[in-house]
Amino acid sequence: RQGAEKMTSWLQIESLHWARPLPITSDWGAEEISAGVYRLIAVDGVTKEPIALPRLCGIDSSGTLYIGCTGSIDGRVNDLRKTLRSDYQSRPHGAGRLLLELPILKDKFPESQLSTVWAITDRPDECERALIRSYIDTFGDAPPLNRQRTATIYD
To answer: Is the pTM value of this prediction over 0.85?
Structure first.
């Protein structure tokens, strides 16, 4: 049940116990992970640390480009990773397709500067909603690749 409570600030994201960032270009391995939330983050090409992203009302030091949820972390995160990798033809993830289809984003965030992180929760939908809402409440807008669900976040 971790993570579904209301977060008052984006700074509370660390309470979710995020996995260590996995570069898009790395192999996933055979680990199966159940339900949870995940983020696509922009990282420095050398240090692999998250890069700060200017937002409407502040600086996002977590580098978050997208927040998602799923009943199968390994399956959905791999869909995102495959969509963004040049060595795969498959493009099953909408946020990944959006990044690739916008030249300004594709140029600014090449696959060598993208990683995924995830946290396990038994209420992924609620947790995703809380994360996006706290991001909007903190920075005045949604993560750059979260465009589908933001209209219903405050319903």
So the answer is: yes
